């Protein structure tokens, strides 16, 4: 599986999950500092690779990322994480965002490239896409934090989440 395949599939999922008359959410991706890999507490919340179901892959390591879903803009959600406040992610509170001052450095490029906007909120669509995107980023070499629905519902690898 290549990045080219991922980008093609993201275009397909963007079309498939665009809403008709629903409020919308979006996925976003934030770059994490690779020193997170040495923190046992942070590694407990790693989503991909993890365990026998999602083992380490023989892919070139691309870095560490956090994948999230929000009704805010990606930059607004980044600011919430960067504040390390109550609604920030665990990895942000632990100090592992790659940059706490500048969204352009931490998440703009990754979010523009891989993020999905205008996701209708019904039937867990945003959370399904959040986990699917995290899984697909893992498949091309990223270590991923943030997504969670795949731990509760077995859908990855099944249409349309292939």
Question: How many domain regions?
Answer: 1
Proportion of helical residues: 25-40%
Strand order of the largest sheet: 2-5-3-1-4
Instruction: Report how far apart the termini are.
Output: 11 Å
Count of DSSP-assigned helices: 7
Largest sheet: 5 strands, mixed
Give the topology string: H per helix, E per strand.
HEHEEHHHEHEH
Uncertain spans, ≥5 residues at pLDDT below 50? Answer: none
Q: Taking all residues together, what is the mean pLDDT?
A: 94
Structural class by helix and strand composition: alpha+beta
What's the number of extended β-strand segments?
Answer: 5
Radius of gyration: 15 Å
Proportion of beta-strand residues: 15-25%
General shape: globular
Write a short abstract of this structure.
The protein has 7 helices and 5 strands, in the order αβαββαααβαβα.
Secondary structure: elements and pairs:
Layout: H1 3-16, E1 24-32, H2 40-43, E2 46-48, E3 63-70, H3 74-82, H4 90-93, H5 103-114, E4 119-120, H6 125-139, E5 142-145, H7 149-152
Parallel strand pairs: 3-5
Antiparallel strand pairs: 1-3, 1-4, 2-5
Helix pairs in contact: 3-5
Using brief descriptors, characterize the structure shown:
16% strand; 38% helix; five-stranded mixed beta sheet; alpha+beta; globular; 162 residues
Q: Overview of this structure, please?
A:
There is one protein chain. The chain has about 160 residues and is of the alpha+beta class. The protein has one domain (about 5-145). About 40% of the residues lie in helices and about 15% in strands. It has seven helices and five strands. The protein has helices at about 5-15, 40-45, 75-80, 90-95, 105-115, 125-140, 150; strands spanning about 25-30, 45-50, 65-70, 120, 140-145. A five-stranded mixed beta sheet has the order 2-5-3-1-4. Helix 3 (about 75-80) crosses helix 5. The model has no long low-confidence stretch (mean pLDDT about 95).
């Amino acid at each position: 599986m290549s990045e080219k395949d991922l980008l093609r599939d993201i275009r397909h999922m963007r079309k498939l999950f665009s809403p008709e008359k629903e409020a919308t959410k979006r996925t976003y991706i934030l770059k994490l500092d690779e020193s997170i890999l040495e923190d046992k507490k942070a590694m407990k919340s790693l989503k991909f690779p993890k365990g026998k179901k999602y083992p380490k892959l023989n892919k070139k390591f691309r870095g560490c990322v956090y994948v999230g879903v929000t009704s805010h803009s990606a930059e607004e959600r980044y600011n919430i994480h960067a504040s390390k406040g109550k609604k920030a992610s665990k990895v942000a509170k632990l100090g592992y965002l790659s940059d706490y001052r500048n969204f352009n450095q931490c998440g703009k490029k990754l979010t523009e490239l891989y993020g999905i906007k205008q996701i209708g909120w019904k039937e867990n669509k945003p959370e399904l896409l959040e986990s699917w995107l995290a899984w697909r980023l893992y498949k091309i070499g990223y270590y991923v934090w943030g997504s969670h629905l795949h731990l509760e519902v077995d859908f990855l690898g099944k249409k349309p989440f292939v």
